[in-house]
Amino acid sequence: MTKPVELPQGTLEMLVLKAISLGPLHGYGILLRIQQISGERLEILQGSFYTAIYRLERRGWIKGAWGESENNRRARFYSLTTAGARQLKAETAKWTDMTAVVAGILNKKAEER
């Protein structure tokens, strides 16, 4: 089995936005989607996960509405707002740029200084 990967600080919110951008989901469904997409390599603590959800909603990047889950329970379903879509785009660009810079540094050889 492949070892779980720890999330770098500040990454969880971006992943939540991405998961919701694929379609509205209730809280636990978002968590499951992230784990599924990651190939079960990300372990996200529910406490930090739900704190991130509330923070995203307060910022206006996601909106929640009450509905019924697949097991007939009352659940809050979240969808991406226009501001959330803009934020996801900006965060994705920053993440892509930062990982390219780090990869470039890690791939340097001593003689290339």
Description:
This protein has helices at residues 11-21, 27-37, 46-58, 82-106; strands at 25-26, 62-68, 74-80. The protein has 113 residues and is an alpha+beta fold. It has one domain (11-112): Winged helix-like DNA-binding domain superfamily/Winged helix DNA-binding domain (Arc Repressor Mutant, subunit A). Strands 1-3-2 form a three-stranded antiparallel sheet. The chain starts with 10 loop residues before the first helix and ends in a 7-residue tail after the last helix. The mean pLDDT is 91.
Question: What descriptive keywords fit this protein?
Answer:
single chain; 113 residues; alpha+beta; Arc Repressor Mutant, subunit A; three-stranded antiparallel β-sheet; 3 strands; 14% strand; elongated
From the N-terminal CA to the C-terminal CA, the straight-line distance is 38 Å
CATH first level: Mainly Alpha
Q: Give the H and E element order.
A: HEHHEEH
Looking at CATH, the homologous superfamily is Winged helix-like DNA-binding domain superfamily/Winged helix DNA-binding domain
Uncertain segments of ≥5 residues (pLDDT<50)? Answer: none
Report the count of strand segments. 3
Proportion of residues in extended strands: 5-15%
Principal-axis shape: elongated
SSE diagram, text form:
Blueprint: H1 11-21, E1 25-26, H2 27-37, H3 46-58, E2 62-68, E3 74-80, H4 82-106
Antiparallel strand pairs: 1-3, 2-3
